[in-house]
From TrEMBL, chains A, B:
This is Plasma membrane ascorbate-dependent reductase CYBRD1. The keyword Manganese does not apply. Residues 15-220 form the Cytochrome b561 domain. It is a multi-pass membrane protein. One of its GO terms (molecular function) is transmembrane ascorbate ferrireductase activity. Homodimer. GO terms for biological process: ascorbate homeostasis; intracellular iron ion homeostasis; multicellular organismal-level iron ion homeostasis; response to iron ion. One of its GO terms (cellular component) is brush border membrane. The lineage of its organism: Eukaryota, Metazoa, Chordata, Craniata, Vertebrata. The gene is LOC101564987.
Length: 285, 285
Protein backbone atom coordinates (compact mmCIF):
# COMPACT_ATOMS: atom_id res chain seq x y z
CA UNK A 1 0.00 0.00 0.00
CA UNK A 2 1.71 3.19 -1.19
CA UNK A 3 1.78 6.07 1.30
CA UNK A 4 3.83 9.28 1.43
CA UNK A 5 6.36 8.98 4.25
CA UNK A 6 5.30 5.48 5.27
CA UNK A 7 8.39 4.97 7.45
CA UNK A 8 7.79 8.25 9.24
CA UNK A 9 4.19 7.26 9.86
CA UNK A 10 5.24 3.86 11.20
CA UNK A 11 7.85 5.42 13.49
CA UNK A 12 5.32 7.87 14.94
CA UNK A 13 2.66 5.16 15.28
CA UNK A 14 5.04 2.86 17.16
CA UNK A 15 6.12 5.81 19.36
CA UNK A 16 2.49 6.68 20.10
CA UNK A 17 1.65 3.06 20.99
CA UNK A 18 4.75 2.83 23.18
CA UNK A 19 4.09 6.13 24.99
CA UNK A 20 0.39 5.29 25.41
CA UNK A 21 1.18 1.82 26.74
CA UNK A 22 3.81 3.29 29.06
CA UNK A 23 1.24 5.80 30.37
CA UNK A 24 -1.07 2.93 31.32
CA UNK A 25 1.82 1.04 32.99
CA UNK A 26 2.88 4.19 34.89
CA UNK A 27 -0.69 4.67 36.13
CA UNK A 28 -0.82 1.05 37.33
CA UNK A 29 2.56 1.39 39.06
CA UNK A 30 1.37 4.62 40.65
CA UNK A 31 -1.76 3.10 42.23
CA UNK A 32 -0.17 -0.28 43.05
CA UNK A 33 3.24 0.86 44.28
CA UNK A 34 2.81 4.46 45.51
CA UNK A 35 -0.86 4.22 46.50
CA UNK A 36 -3.06 1.65 48.17
CA UNK A 37 -3.72 -0.67 45.22
CA UNK A 38 -7.02 -1.58 43.56
CA UNK A 39 -10.37 -2.77 44.93
CA UNK A 40 -14.09 -2.03 44.80
CA UNK A 41 -15.01 -1.39 48.44
CA UNK A 42 -15.63 2.36 48.67
CA UNK A 43 -12.12 3.04 50.01
CA UNK A 44 -9.11 4.56 48.26
CA UNK A 45 -8.70 1.19 46.53
CA UNK A 46 -11.88 1.94 44.63
CA UNK A 47 -10.84 5.52 43.92
CA UNK A 48 -7.67 4.16 42.34
CA UNK A 49 -9.68 2.66 39.47
CA UNK A 50 -10.41 6.28 38.48
CA UNK A 51 -6.91 7.12 37.15
CA UNK A 52 -6.38 3.58 35.78
CA UNK A 53 -9.62 3.61 33.77
CA UNK A 54 -9.37 7.20 32.56
CA UNK A 55 -5.79 6.81 31.32
CA UNK A 56 -6.52 3.41 29.73
CA UNK A 57 -9.90 4.21 28.19
CA UNK A 58 -10.21 7.95 27.88
CA UNK A 59 -6.61 8.57 26.75
CA UNK A 60 -5.08 5.42 25.24
CA UNK A 61 -8.14 3.80 23.63
CA UNK A 62 -9.64 7.14 22.56
CA UNK A 63 -6.27 8.00 20.98
CA UNK A 64 -6.31 4.75 18.98
CA UNK A 65 -9.92 5.38 17.92
CA UNK A 66 -8.86 8.78 16.54
CA UNK A 67 -6.09 7.42 14.30
CA UNK A 68 -7.66 4.11 13.24
CA UNK A 69 -8.62 5.38 9.75
CA UNK A 70 -4.98 6.32 9.13
CA UNK A 71 -3.50 2.82 9.35
CA UNK A 72 -2.59 2.14 5.70
CA UNK A 73 -3.08 -1.64 5.98
CA UNK A 74 -6.78 -1.00 6.75
CA UNK A 75 -7.32 1.00 3.55
CA UNK A 76 -8.50 -2.11 1.69
CA UNK A 77 -11.06 -2.81 4.44
CA UNK A 78 -14.56 -1.43 3.88
CA UNK A 79 -15.36 2.00 5.29
CA UNK A 80 -18.27 0.42 7.19
CA UNK A 81 -15.86 -1.94 8.99
CA UNK A 82 -13.51 0.91 9.88
CA UNK A 83 -16.38 3.08 11.11
CA UNK A 84 -17.53 0.16 13.28
CA UNK A 85 -14.03 -0.19 14.75
CA UNK A 86 -13.85 3.60 15.35
CA UNK A 87 -17.27 3.56 17.05
CA UNK A 88 -16.43 0.35 18.96
CA UNK A 89 -13.19 1.74 20.42
CA UNK A 90 -14.94 4.98 21.37
CA UNK A 91 -17.73 2.97 23.03
CA UNK A 92 -15.18 1.02 25.09
CA UNK A 93 -13.50 4.31 26.04
CA UNK A 94 -16.87 5.82 27.07
CA UNK A 95 -17.77 2.77 29.19
CA UNK A 96 -14.40 2.85 30.98
CA UNK A 97 -14.78 6.61 31.56
CA UNK A 98 -18.24 6.10 33.07
CA UNK A 99 -16.98 3.31 35.36
CA UNK A 100 -14.14 5.67 36.33
CA UNK A 101 -16.74 8.27 37.37
CA UNK A 102 -18.74 5.67 39.34
CA UNK A 103 -15.55 4.63 41.17
CA UNK A 104 -14.82 8.15 42.38
CA UNK A 105 -18.44 9.07 43.23
CA UNK A 106 -18.90 5.86 45.28
CA UNK A 107 -15.57 6.43 47.02
CA UNK A 108 -16.52 9.98 47.96
CA UNK A 109 -20.00 8.96 49.11
CA UNK A 110 -18.50 6.24 51.35
CA UNK A 111 -16.13 8.79 52.87
CA UNK A 112 -18.86 11.44 53.04
CA UNK A 113 -16.76 13.87 50.98
CA UNK A 114 -18.31 16.70 48.95
CA UNK A 115 -18.48 16.25 45.18
CA UNK A 116 -18.18 18.42 42.09
CA UNK A 117 -16.50 21.47 43.59
CA UNK A 118 -13.21 21.31 41.64
CA UNK A 119 -12.47 22.53 38.12
CA UNK A 120 -11.25 18.96 37.39
CA UNK A 121 -14.71 17.59 38.24
CA UNK A 122 -16.59 20.31 36.33
CA UNK A 123 -14.62 19.81 33.14
CA UNK A 124 -14.29 16.03 33.56
CA UNK A 125 -18.02 15.34 33.97
CA UNK A 126 -18.84 17.72 31.10
CA UNK A 127 -16.27 15.93 28.91
CA UNK A 128 -17.81 12.50 29.64
CA UNK A 129 -21.31 13.81 28.89
CA UNK A 130 -20.23 15.46 25.62
CA UNK A 131 -18.23 12.34 24.68
CA UNK A 132 -21.36 10.18 25.03
CA UNK A 133 -23.35 12.75 23.04
CA UNK A 134 -20.67 12.72 20.31
CA UNK A 135 -20.82 8.91 20.26
CA UNK A 136 -24.63 8.79 19.95
CA UNK A 137 -24.76 11.52 17.29
CA UNK A 138 -21.86 9.93 15.41
CA UNK A 139 -23.62 6.55 15.46
CA UNK A 140 -26.93 7.99 14.21
CA UNK A 141 -25.44 10.21 11.52
CA UNK A 142 -22.45 8.25 10.19
CA UNK A 143 -23.05 4.58 11.01
CA UNK A 144 -26.80 4.14 10.56
CA UNK A 145 -27.52 4.13 6.82
CA UNK A 146 -30.42 6.61 6.61
CA UNK A 147 -28.83 10.01 7.30
CA UNK A 148 -28.87 12.16 4.13
CA UNK A 149 -25.48 12.74 2.50
CA UNK A 150 -25.83 16.50 2.85
CA UNK A 151 -26.29 16.16 6.64
CA UNK A 152 -23.17 13.98 6.87
CA UNK A 153 -21.17 16.53 4.88
CA UNK A 154 -22.31 19.34 7.18
CA UNK A 155 -21.72 17.44 10.42
CA UNK A 156 -18.34 15.87 9.56
CA UNK A 157 -16.16 18.96 10.24
CA UNK A 158 -17.99 19.46 13.55
CA UNK A 159 -17.56 15.76 14.42
CA UNK A 160 -13.81 15.91 13.70
CA UNK A 161 -13.34 19.18 15.60
CA UNK A 162 -15.40 18.01 18.62
CA UNK A 163 -13.57 14.70 18.76
CA UNK A 164 -10.14 16.30 18.79
CA UNK A 165 -11.24 19.03 21.17
CA UNK A 166 -12.68 16.45 23.59
CA UNK A 167 -9.46 14.41 23.40
CA UNK A 168 -7.46 17.53 24.31
CA UNK A 169 -9.92 18.38 27.07
CA UNK A 170 -9.59 14.89 28.55
CA UNK A 171 -5.80 15.28 28.68
CA UNK A 172 -6.21 18.69 30.39
CA UNK A 173 -8.60 17.14 32.91
CA UNK A 174 -6.16 14.34 33.72
CA UNK A 175 -3.34 16.83 34.31
CA UNK A 176 -5.64 18.71 36.71
CA UNK A 177 -6.48 15.39 38.41
CA UNK A 178 -2.79 14.62 38.94
CA UNK A 179 -2.20 18.15 40.28
CA UNK A 180 -5.24 17.89 42.56
CA UNK A 181 -4.13 14.55 43.99
CA UNK A 182 -0.56 15.67 44.61
CA UNK A 183 -1.55 19.03 46.11
CA UNK A 184 -4.23 17.73 48.44
CA UNK A 185 -1.31 16.82 50.68
CA UNK A 186 -1.68 13.06 50.73
CA UNK A 187 1.84 12.19 49.64
CA UNK A 188 4.64 11.14 52.00
CA UNK A 189 7.17 12.66 51.77
CA UNK A 190 5.62 15.96 50.68
CA UNK A 191 5.30 16.79 46.96
CA UNK A 192 7.48 19.91 47.31
CA UNK A 193 10.47 17.87 48.55
CA UNK A 194 10.81 16.25 45.11
CA UNK A 195 9.41 13.00 46.49
CA UNK A 196 9.81 9.90 44.30
CA UNK A 197 5.99 9.72 43.95
CA UNK A 198 5.86 13.36 42.85
CA UNK A 199 8.54 12.95 40.19
CA UNK A 200 7.02 9.65 39.03
CA UNK A 201 3.52 11.12 38.70
CA UNK A 202 4.78 14.26 36.98
CA UNK A 203 6.51 11.97 34.48
CA UNK A 204 3.19 10.19 33.92
CA UNK A 205 1.69 13.61 33.13
CA UNK A 206 4.46 14.33 30.63
CA UNK A 207 3.94 10.93 28.96
CA UNK A 208 0.22 11.69 28.54
CA UNK A 209 0.99 15.09 26.98
CA UNK A 210 3.51 13.42 24.64
CA UNK A 211 0.93 10.78 23.67
CA UNK A 212 -1.52 13.58 22.87
CA UNK A 213 1.12 15.41 20.80
CA UNK A 214 1.84 12.26 18.73
CA UNK A 215 -1.86 11.51 18.11
CA UNK A 216 -2.51 15.14 17.08
CA UNK A 217 0.44 15.10 14.68
CA UNK A 218 -0.58 11.77 13.10
CA UNK A 219 -4.21 12.79 12.66
CA UNK A 220 -3.52 16.22 11.15
CA UNK A 221 -1.08 15.13 8.38
CA UNK A 222 -3.12 15.32 5.15
CA UNK A 223 -0.82 12.90 3.32
CA UNK A 224 -1.73 10.13 5.80
CA UNK A 225 -5.49 10.40 5.24
CA UNK A 226 -7.38 7.28 4.20
CA UNK A 227 -7.73 7.48 0.38
CA UNK A 228 -11.15 8.28 -1.03
CA UNK A 229 -13.35 5.33 -1.96
CA UNK A 230 -13.65 4.51 -5.65
CA UNK A 231 -16.60 6.08 -7.44
CA UNK A 232 -20.04 4.92 -6.29
CA UNK A 233 -20.76 3.23 -9.59
CA UNK A 234 -17.92 0.76 -8.96
CA UNK A 235 -19.19 -0.13 -5.52
CA UNK A 236 -22.71 -0.65 -6.76
CA UNK A 237 -21.54 -3.70 -8.66
CA UNK A 238 -20.26 -5.47 -5.56
CA UNK A 239 -22.04 -3.88 -2.65
CA UNK A 240 -25.42 -2.60 -3.83
CA UNK A 241 -26.57 1.01 -3.84
CA UNK A 242 -26.54 1.49 -0.09
CA UNK A 243 -22.93 0.37 0.24
CA UNK A 244 -21.96 2.43 -2.77
CA UNK A 245 -23.51 5.58 -1.36
CA UNK A 246 -21.79 4.80 1.90
CA UNK A 247 -18.45 4.99 0.15
CA UNK A 248 -19.21 8.33 -1.47
CA UNK A 249 -20.69 9.78 1.66
CA UNK A 250 -17.69 9.09 3.75
CA UNK A 251 -15.38 10.39 1.08
CA UNK A 252 -17.32 13.62 1.24
CA UNK A 253 -17.50 13.57 4.99
CA UNK A 254 -13.82 12.82 5.26
CA UNK A 255 -13.02 16.10 3.56
CA UNK A 256 -13.41 17.96 6.78
CA UNK A 257 -11.45 20.83 5.33
CA UNK A 258 -13.63 21.54 2.33
CA UNK A 259 -16.72 23.66 1.95
CA UNK A 260 -19.87 22.21 0.40
CA UNK A 261 -19.19 23.88 -2.92
CA UNK A 262 -15.71 22.44 -3.02
CA UNK A 263 -17.04 18.99 -2.13
CA UNK A 264 -19.44 19.14 -5.07
CA UNK A 265 -16.75 20.14 -7.52
CA UNK A 266 -14.57 17.46 -5.99
CA UNK A 267 -17.13 14.78 -6.75
CA UNK A 268 -17.10 15.97 -10.34
CA UNK A 269 -13.28 15.77 -10.38
CA UNK A 270 -13.43 12.28 -8.97
CA UNK A 271 -15.89 11.23 -11.63
CA UNK A 272 -13.45 12.42 -14.28
CA UNK A 273 -10.64 10.56 -12.56
CA UNK A 274 -12.66 7.35 -12.56
CA UNK A 275 -10.24 4.48 -12.95
CA UNK A 276 -7.27 6.03 -11.17
CA UNK A 277 -5.86 3.94 -8.36
CA UNK A 278 -6.27 5.04 -4.75
CA UNK A 279 -2.93 6.78 -4.56
CA UNK A 280 -3.59 8.72 -7.72
CA UNK A 281 -6.93 9.86 -6.43
CA UNK A 282 -5.47 11.03 -3.16
CA UNK A 283 -3.35 13.64 -4.83
CA UNK A 284 -6.52 15.35 -6.06
CA UNK A 285 -7.46 16.17 -2.46
CA UNK B 1 -14.13 41.53 0.83
CA UNK B 2 -16.05 38.34 -0.02
CA UNK B 3 -15.71 35.45 2.44
CA UNK B 4 -17.73 32.24 2.90
CA UNK B 5 -19.83 32.54 6.05
CA UNK B 6 -18.63 36.05 6.89
CA UNK B 7 -21.37 36.59 9.48
CA UNK B 8 -20.51 33.32 11.20
CA UNK B 9 -16.86 34.34 11.27
CA UNK B 10 -17.72 37.73 12.72
CA UNK B 11 -19.96 36.18 15.39
CA UNK B 12 -17.23 33.78 16.47
CA UNK B 13 -14.56 36.48 16.40
CA UNK B 14 -16.63 38.80 18.60
CA UNK B 15 -17.36 35.86 20.94
CA UNK B 16 -13.66 35.01 21.15
CA UNK B 17 -12.71 38.63 21.88
CA UNK B 18 -15.45 38.87 24.50
CA UNK B 19 -14.52 35.60 26.21
CA UNK B 20 -10.81 36.43 26.07
CA UNK B 21 -11.39 39.91 27.48
CA UNK B 22 -13.67 38.46 30.19
CA UNK B 23 -10.91 35.98 31.12
CA UNK B 24 -8.50 38.86 31.70
CA UNK B 25 -11.11 40.76 33.75
CA UNK B 26 -11.88 37.62 35.82
CA UNK B 27 -8.18 37.16 36.53
CA UNK B 28 -7.88 40.78 37.67
CA UNK B 29 -10.97 40.47 39.87
CA UNK B 30 -9.55 37.25 41.29
CA UNK B 31 -6.23 38.78 42.38
CA UNK B 32 -7.68 42.16 43.40
CA UNK B 33 -10.87 41.04 45.14
CA UNK B 34 -10.27 37.46 46.33
CA UNK B 35 -6.49 37.69 46.76
CA UNK B 36 -4.07 40.27 48.07
CA UNK B 37 -3.85 42.57 45.04
CA UNK B 38 -0.84 43.46 42.90
CA UNK B 39 2.67 44.64 43.77
CA UNK B 40 6.34 43.91 43.11
CA UNK B 41 7.78 43.31 46.57
CA UNK B 42 8.44 39.56 46.75
CA UNK B 43 5.16 38.89 48.59
CA UNK B 44 1.92 37.36 47.31
CA UNK B 45 1.25 40.71 45.62
CA UNK B 46 4.13 39.96 43.29
CA UNK B 47 3.01 36.35 42.78
CA UNK B 48 -0.37 37.70 41.64
CA UNK B 49 1.22 39.19 38.52
CA UNK B 50 1.80 35.56 37.47
CA UNK B 51 -1.87 34.71 36.67
CA UNK B 52 -2.58 38.23 35.34
CA UNK B 53 0.33 38.18 32.89
CA UNK B 54 -0.10 34.57 31.76
CA UNK B 55 -3.82 34.96 31.05
CA UNK B 56 -3.32 38.34 29.35
CA UNK B 57 -0.20 37.51 27.34
CA UNK B 58 0.06 33.79 27.01
CA UNK B 59 -3.68 33.16 26.42
CA UNK B 60 -5.42 36.30 25.11
CA UNK B 61 -2.62 37.90 23.07
CA UNK B 62 -1.30 34.55 21.82
CA UNK B 63 -4.87 33.68 20.75
CA UNK B 64 -5.10 36.92 18.76
CA UNK B 65 -1.69 36.27 17.17
CA UNK B 66 -2.94 32.86 16.01
CA UNK B 67 -6.02 34.20 14.18
CA UNK B 68 -4.62 37.48 12.88
CA UNK B 69 -4.19 36.20 9.30
CA UNK B 70 -7.89 35.26 9.22
CA UNK B 71 -9.31 38.76 9.61
CA UNK B 72 -10.76 39.42 6.12
CA UNK B 73 -10.24 43.19 6.31
CA UNK B 74 -6.46 42.56 6.53
CA UNK B 75 -6.40 40.53 3.32
CA UNK B 76 -5.50 43.60 1.29
CA UNK B 77 -2.56 44.33 3.61
CA UNK B 78 0.81 42.94 2.55
CA UNK B 79 1.80 39.55 3.86
CA UNK B 80 4.96 41.13 5.29
CA UNK B 81 2.87 43.52 7.41
CA UNK B 82 0.65 40.66 8.66
CA UNK B 83 3.67 38.52 9.48
CA UNK B 84 5.14 41.43 11.43
CA UNK B 85 1.90 41.81 13.40
CA UNK B 86 1.80 38.03 14.05
CA UNK B 87 5.44 38.09 15.22
CA UNK B 88 4.89 41.29 17.22
CA UNK B 89 1.90 39.94 19.13
CA UNK B 90 3.78 36.70 19.86
CA UNK B 91 6.77 38.73 21.07
CA UNK B 92 4.56 40.70 23.47
CA UNK B 93 3.04 37.40 24.68
CA UNK B 94 6.51 35.92 25.23
CA UNK B 95 7.72 38.98 27.16
CA UNK B 96 4.65 38.92 29.42
CA UNK B 97 5.11 35.17 29.98
CA UNK B 98 8.75 35.68 30.96
CA UNK B 99 7.84 38.49 33.39
CA UNK B 100 5.17 36.14 34.79
CA UNK B 101 7.89 33.55 35.46
CA UNK B 102 10.15 36.16 37.08
CA UNK B 103 7.27 37.21 39.36
CA UNK B 104 6.72 33.71 40.69
CA UNK B 105 10.43 32.81 41.02
CA UNK B 106 11.18 36.04 42.95
CA UNK B 107 8.14 35.50 45.17
CA UNK B 108 9.23 31.94 45.98
CA UNK B 109 12.84 32.97 46.61
CA UNK B 110 11.67 35.72 48.99
CA UNK B 111 9.54 33.18 50.88
CA UNK B 112 12.29 30.54 50.67
CA UNK B 113 9.90 28.09 48.98
CA UNK B 114 11.14 25.22 46.77
CA UNK B 115 10.75 25.64 43.00
CA UNK B 116 10.02 23.44 40.02
CA UNK B 117 8.56 20.40 41.76
CA UNK B 118 5.03 20.56 40.31
CA UNK B 119 3.79 19.30 36.95
CA UNK B 120 2.47 22.86 36.37
CA UNK B 121 6.02 24.24 36.68
CA UNK B 122 7.61 21.50 34.56
CA UNK B 123 5.19 21.97 31.67
CA UNK B 124 4.93 25.75 32.11
CA UNK B 125 8.67 26.46 31.96
CA UNK B 126 9.07 24.04 29.02
CA UNK B 127 6.21 25.83 27.22
CA UNK B 128 7.83 29.26 27.68
CA UNK B 129 11.19 27.94 26.44
CA UNK B 130 9.64 26.26 23.38
CA UNK B 131 7.53 29.37 22.71
CA UNK B 132 10.67 31.53 22.58
CA UNK B 133 12.35 28.93 20.34
CA UNK B 134 9.30 28.95 18.03
CA UNK B 135 9.44 32.75 17.93
CA UNK B 136 13.15 32.88 17.06
CA UNK B 137 12.89 30.13 14.42
CA UNK B 138 9.74 31.70 12.97
CA UNK B 139 11.48 35.07 12.74
CA UNK B 140 14.58 33.63 11.02
CA UNK B 141 12.70 31.38 8.60
CA UNK B 142 9.55 33.33 7.71
CA UNK B 143 10.26 36.99 8.39
CA UNK B 144 13.90 37.43 7.40
CA UNK B 145 14.04 37.39 3.60
CA UNK B 146 16.89 34.93 3.00
CA UNK B 147 15.42 31.53 3.94
CA UNK B 148 15.00 29.35 0.80
CA UNK B 149 11.40 28.76 -0.30
CA UNK B 150 11.84 24.99 0.03
CA UNK B 151 12.84 25.38 3.69
CA UNK B 152 9.77 27.55 4.38
CA UNK B 153 7.51 24.99 2.73
CA UNK B 154 8.99 22.20 4.85
CA UNK B 155 8.89 24.14 8.12
CA UNK B 156 5.41 25.70 7.75
CA UNK B 157 3.36 22.61 8.78
CA UNK B 158 5.66 22.14 11.80
CA UNK B 159 5.36 25.86 12.69
CA UNK B 160 1.54 25.70 12.54
CA UNK B 161 1.36 22.45 14.51
CA UNK B 162 3.83 23.64 17.18
CA UNK B 163 2.04 26.95 17.56
CA UNK B 164 -1.35 25.37 18.10
CA UNK B 165 0.10 22.66 20.32
CA UNK B 166 1.86 25.25 22.49
CA UNK B 167 -1.35 27.30 22.75
CA UNK B 168 -3.19 24.18 23.97
CA UNK B 169 -0.35 23.35 26.35
CA UNK B 170 -0.46 26.86 27.83
CA UNK B 171 -4.19 26.47 28.52
CA UNK B 172 -3.53 23.07 30.17
CA UNK B 173 -0.81 24.65 32.30
CA UNK B 174 -3.10 27.46 33.44
CA UNK B 175 -5.81 24.98 34.46
CA UNK B 176 -3.18 23.12 36.51
CA UNK B 177 -2.11 26.44 38.03
CA UNK B 178 -5.69 27.22 39.10
CA UNK B 179 -6.06 23.71 40.54
CA UNK B 180 -2.72 23.98 42.35
CA UNK B 181 -3.61 27.33 43.91
CA UNK B 182 -7.06 26.22 45.05
CA UNK B 183 -5.87 22.87 46.41
CA UNK B 184 -2.88 24.21 48.31
CA UNK B 185 -5.45 25.15 50.94
CA UNK B 186 -5.04 28.91 50.90
CA UNK B 187 -8.70 29.78 50.33
CA UNK B 188 -11.12 30.84 53.05
CA UNK B 189 -13.69 29.32 53.22
CA UNK B 190 -12.29 26.00 51.96
CA UNK B 191 -12.52 25.14 48.24
CA UNK B 192 -14.63 22.02 48.92
CA UNK B 193 -17.40 24.07 50.56
CA UNK B 194 -18.23 25.66 47.17
CA UNK B 195 -16.66 28.91 48.30
CA UNK B 196 -17.35 32.00 46.17
CA UNK B 197 -13.65 32.17 45.28
CA UNK B 198 -13.67 28.51 44.21
CA UNK B 199 -16.69 28.92 41.96
CA UNK B 200 -15.37 32.20 40.55
CA UNK B 201 -11.95 30.73 39.75
CA UNK B 202 -13.45 27.56 38.25
CA UNK B 203 -15.52 29.83 36.02
CA UNK B 204 -12.33 31.60 34.96
CA UNK B 205 -10.95 28.17 34.00
CA UNK B 206 -14.06 27.44 31.92
CA UNK B 207 -13.77 30.83 30.17
CA UNK B 208 -10.16 30.06 29.22
CA UNK B 209 -11.15 26.65 27.81
CA UNK B 210 -13.98 28.30 25.86
CA UNK B 211 -11.57 30.92 24.49
CA UNK B 212 -9.27 28.11 23.36
CA UNK B 213 -12.19 26.28 21.74
CA UNK B 214 -13.19 29.41 19.77
CA UNK B 215 -9.64 30.15 18.60
CA UNK B 216 -9.15 26.51 17.52
CA UNK B 217 -12.43 26.54 15.57
CA UNK B 218 -11.65 29.84 13.83
CA UNK B 219 -8.11 28.82 12.88
CA UNK B 220 -9.02 25.38 11.52
CA UNK B 221 -11.84 26.43 9.14
CA UNK B 222 -10.31 26.23 5.64
CA UNK B 223 -12.86 28.64 4.15
CA UNK B 224 -11.59 31.41 6.43
CA UNK B 225 -7.97 31.13 5.33
CA UNK B 226 -6.25 34.24 4.00
CA UNK B 227 -6.48 33.99 0.19
CA UNK B 228 -3.33 33.19 -1.75
CA UNK B 229 -1.34 36.11 -3.03
CA UNK B 230 -1.66 36.87 -6.74
CA UNK B 231 0.95 35.26 -8.97
CA UNK B 232 4.53 36.44 -8.44
CA UNK B 233 4.62 38.05 -11.89
CA UNK B 234 1.87 40.49 -10.81
CA UNK B 235 3.68 41.47 -7.65
CA UNK B 236 6.93 42.03 -9.49
CA UNK B 237 5.36 44.98 -11.27
CA UNK B 238 4.55 46.81 -8.04
CA UNK B 239 6.91 45.35 -5.45
CA UNK B 240 10.06 44.11 -7.13
CA UNK B 241 11.28 40.55 -7.23
CA UNK B 242 11.93 40.15 -3.52
CA UNK B 243 8.41 41.22 -2.60
CA UNK B 244 7.02 39.03 -5.33
CA UNK B 245 8.85 35.97 -4.07
CA UNK B 246 7.62 36.82 -0.62
CA UNK B 247 4.06 36.55 -1.82
CA UNK B 248 4.59 33.21 -3.49
CA UNK B 249 6.56 31.81 -0.61
CA UNK B 250 3.91 32.52 1.92
CA UNK B 251 1.20 31.19 -0.34
CA UNK B 252 3.18 27.97 -0.44
CA UNK B 253 3.95 28.07 3.22
CA UNK B 254 0.35 28.84 4.05
CA UNK B 255 -0.74 25.54 2.57
CA UNK B 256 0.16 23.76 5.75
CA UNK B 257 -2.02 20.84 4.70
CA UNK B 258 -0.34 20.09 1.39
CA UNK B 259 2.65 17.95 0.53
CA UNK B 260 5.51 19.39 -1.50
CA UNK B 261 4.34 17.63 -4.64
CA UNK B 262 0.86 19.08 -4.24
CA UNK B 263 2.28 22.54 -3.63
CA UNK B 264 4.23 22.35 -6.88
CA UNK B 265 1.21 21.27 -8.91
CA UNK B 266 -0.74 23.97 -7.10
CA UNK B 267 1.63 26.66 -8.29
CA UNK B 268 1.03 25.42 -11.82
CA UNK B 269 -2.72 25.58 -11.25
CA UNK B 270 -2.44 29.11 -9.97
CA UNK B 271 -0.45 30.14 -12.98
CA UNK B 272 -3.25 28.87 -15.21
CA UNK B 273 -5.76 30.76 -13.09
CA UNK B 274 -3.77 33.98 -13.46
CA UNK B 275 -6.20 36.88 -13.48
CA UNK B 276 -8.87 35.44 -11.18
CA UNK B 277 -9.75 37.60 -8.22
CA UNK B 278 -8.81 36.52 -4.70
CA UNK B 279 -12.06 34.76 -3.99
CA UNK B 280 -11.90 32.80 -7.19
CA UNK B 281 -8.37 31.71 -6.40
CA UNK B 282 -9.30 30.55 -2.95
CA UNK B 283 -11.67 27.93 -4.28
CA UNK B 284 -8.73 26.19 -5.95
CA UNK B 285 -7.22 25.40 -2.53
Amino acid sequence: MAMDGYKGFLGLLVSALLVGFLSVIFTLVWVLHYREGLGWDGTALQFNWHPVLTVTGFVFIQGLAIIVYRLPWTWKCSKLLMKSIHAGLNTVAAILAIIALVAVFENRRALNLPNMYSLHSWIGVTAVALYVLQLVLGFCIFLLPWAPLSLRAIVMPIHVYSGLFLFGTVIMTILMGITEKLFSGQTTPAYNTFSPEGIFTNTLGLLIVLFGALIFWIVTRPQWKRPKEPDASILQSNGGTAEGMEGVTMSLGGNADKSDAEINSDVATRKRNFGLDDTGQRSTM
